[in-house]
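User: Teach me something about this protein's shape.
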Amino acid sequence: MAKKRDGGGLTKTQRAAKFLGVSVLAGAVLAGLALPAAGALGLVAKGSVEGFDDIPANLKTPPLSQRTTILDADGGEIAKVYSRDRTVVGLKDMSPYIRQAIVAIEDARFYEHGAVDLKGILRALNKNARAGGVSEGASTLTQQYVKNVFIEEAGDDPNKVAQATQQTIGRKVKELKYAIQVEKELGKRKILQNYLNITFFGQQAYGVEAAAQRYFSTSAKDLKLEQAALLAGIVQSPSRYDPVNDPKEATLRRNTVLQRMADLKDITQAQADEASKKPIQLSVSRPENGCITATHGAGFFCDYVREVFLNDKTFGKTRKVRSRLWNQGGMTIRTTMDAQTQKSIQASISDHVYKDDPVASAATIVEPGTGKILGMGQSRPYGFGENQTQINLSVDHSMGGGAGYQPGSTFKPVIAAAALERGKSPQQEYSSPYRMRYPSPVQTCKGPWQGTETTQNENEKEVGPYGMKEATAKSVNTYFVQLISDIGICPAVKMAQSMGIERADGKKLQEVPSMTLGVQEMSPLTMAGGYAAFANGGEYCSPVAIQSITDPQGKKMNVPRSSCRRAMSQKTAKTINALLKGVVEDGTGKEAGLRGRDSAGKTGTSDSRYAAWFVGYTPNAAGAVWVGDPQHKRKMFDISIGGAYHDKVYGADTPGPIWRDAMSGALTGRPAPSLPTVPIEDPHKDKGKPPAGEDGKGRHKPGNGGDNKPGDGWHLPDFPDILGGGNGRW
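Assistant: First, the predicted structure itself:
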């Protein structure tokens, strides 16, 4: 072990400076404080300290930063987050031993002197002069408290912290004046309470309650004599007297405190001797801070709650104000997360996609009608290690997510809803040829779109005419291209916006016909929230994650509320329900269907299989599942996911089962109402044979009409920018 320096680890130069400081300070106290009207202190170089009377009279005491506890909807703890681990308690919740010990070792005459201990200064000056250095300080407990207030106010700003702790006469004089104010306004008991709550005890523990928990896994109220003496001894130098890393040095310091308590008659000599013989017995509770400690894989939901707080003006006009409030903490945040739903999401994802797979998965479930986010999970855990990430794959970039992922054919129901709102019948037929050019020109919100791009269906046998029901069940590309060209692009854009469906990168939706094929990147939360409008009779409610917040004093704070609006008529919503029920009953989404309850949904696969989706809902829950490469590099051909081999990944065979299992677990034991629908007669029903591209068991054959995206079979080397996105990829 390296040899310790004398004087609390200070160098000779530092000790000399401190000695000089105490000497000058003594003169300052005797001259300046005795005669404050004298103005500028002439005892130091000009400009090195403010005039005593020029120092502001009121010490600004910022709220002490504390732990914030994040709870689920039923009050179960998700995580604790804090910038400083602290729990503020009153004197009655502190052991008498810790109160006696801290006074004994830090300021034995605390109850006898005022803000400044002139006798203590003179004693220190005399002792230090005889020692030729600094062997004793002169700051009172009140002055130390003021210094800690300066440090607390500095927060995590290193420059401000340096200013708050710099060894200058100017800072000392300022500290003295504020100490006088504090003594006058608070009194001894309150000063002691505040000091024990603000001071740093090492090992990331601020305040005596956190320190008691950290070192002994007990409360400040239950500290024993030897434990209290140990904590009191740490304060002078938390690194030097750290009992975790240097128990020998900590023991010597503890015994010094015990003897000091005996000398002052706080305890008997026999008590001090008995306690001194005891070895240090720690029961260390490691700090568990932040969303990385969240239960049930809810780290990303926890992180989303933080992002909501930092981004929503309900909590302050500027991000700086909101960030300060978050860092101060001390709040209890009750969220919308349902523990049963969260567990089910994470269990389902873990069963189907492994954290070290070449691709990842994310899923989110929301409650129709309220916008409450019930659960949010992903295959790669929240963290900093291998196969971990801090990017929330379920949300938009502005809320801690990535750039989003092409939702593929899960966007087609949005086009269908827009068409129904424009008066189109669900019996609407289109020729739906195998291959076709996009009709041109097509009207956008700003004018006509013109182009020569071409699209096609999955295979040559997939040829219309089709009505809307069969085209939705089979996910026929050319049907929906004709549909959006017929109604125009603007109604589709407005429908998406009314359903809260926007790009994950925050940019505006591109007004191109290819939007019907889901080529613009979205997040799972966005898609789940949009589909919830179908389940809720056509009314969209914006997602919310926070139910209530109480501040450190237990007072309720304002929180953002879900904003609901009508996105479509109830008739349109019922029609979409009927269309999407067909998808899970006898279309591309059979493998996602739920047993014993109504459900509806849609599969989707992006170009070249960079992403696969299933988005679906019941009357009481709507969820979106994405599987793919977050970096958009790994195509899902010839790939193993969750231990299962796939020659090609479809929305039905990987996201679909994840959705099914997650929803089944989330809804176990809960009501199973029916989805309201309207009857739809399709003039071109298949007669006695499975839908094109199906094997009769709900699984896809190569070249089927399943998700009808470029990766599902339409490889068009002659049209490299076929989807009109302008980015050279589909």
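Now, about its shape. The mean pLDDT is 84. The CA atoms of residues 442 and 449 lie 5 Å apart. If you'd like, I can walk through any region in more detail.
User: That's plenty for now, thanks!
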